[in-house]
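Incident review: delayed structure delivery

Summary: a single-chain prediction request sat in the queue longer than the usual turnaround. Root cause was a stuck worker, restarted by the on-call engineer. No data loss occurred. The affected request and its eventual output are reproduced below so the record is complete for anyone auditing the incident later.

Affected input:
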Amino acid sequence: MPHAVTITGSRRTGHRTATEYRMMFDAYLQPFAGPGSHVYLGGAEGIDTLALDWLAQHGRAALTVVVPCTLGDQPDQARQTVREAARRARVSLVELGAPQLDEEAYHARNRWMVDRSDLVIGFPHGDDPRSGTWYTIGYGAERARPRLIVPI
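Output delivered after worker restart:
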């Protein structure tokens, strides 16, 4: 079983209920939530923060939140979720210090996470190949990482 996992997903999550996401995470993240696992997540709103919150509540894996610039550059709700998760679980923060928050900074952050992982779990909304989620899934494929795709 993979020990290091990258979770990536859409920022658009309002079309499903909290119960639906909890059921998805119960089914697809639970196998990687144990004490021998390491999970990398971005620090954005949406799947990043939903999965971080679920893992902090239900898991014992080591969690690393990776942000392109600094945590202070993330939206208020995302910063709050990271801080709350750190009170409940073992959460590390990696701030990559990109000079500006743009598409390339997000792609670099996602490559950084995938390069340290054995598996990529993607929660895409739609099939737009230009989305960050599909970019990350594709990068995982280029690096011969197994991918689990859970459409939301």
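Verification: The radius of gyration is 14 Å.
Action items: add queue-age alerting; document worker restart procedure.
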